[in-house]
Structure prediction request, 183 residues.
Amino acid sequence: GNSTYAPAKAGGSANAPIAAGGYTGVNLVRPEMANGRTSPSEYRLRFTDQFILRITDAAESRWLETPLEQSFTVSRRVDRIGAELEGTAIELKPHPAMQSSAVFPGSIQCPPSGNPFLLGPDAQTTGGYPRIAQVIRADRHLIGQLRPSAQVMLQRVKPAEAQSLYRSKLELLRKLQPDMRLD
Prediction:
């Protein structure tokens, strides 16, 4: 494909290496991939700097003192590992020290600064930070669109609603792209 993973210095057509000055000898447009498929306009993502990310509780959500359902601004600290969210500092109840453990893309952790950190596709271990929320699976595609100064509103949903939203998304995608494997 034409995707790029800059930390590994790989990407572009045929996973060609990235040269010091950019791509060399790589055709970034592959006409054979455009076979007439288009998404209906009502299903196309719109380009925006305002996002609503729906969340569910995570392992340490019970430690929250400050409501997480609020608007945040994406800081300049954003990459494939994650995005720092600036706004009202999140306060936690007194809690025991945590050991580092596994996390998933979409996990929101709370470091000592109080600025929630939303983990992206290259999420690492928590580093001992409480996991205070999880972006629902149906909304995780939006994480890759976050850039500095974007506005993010977190909206809590119940797990059953999160599952229903994801099933609806899969059903829609299967209708639009019946030969694409989603599981």
Q: What stands out?
A: The chain has one helix and nine strands.
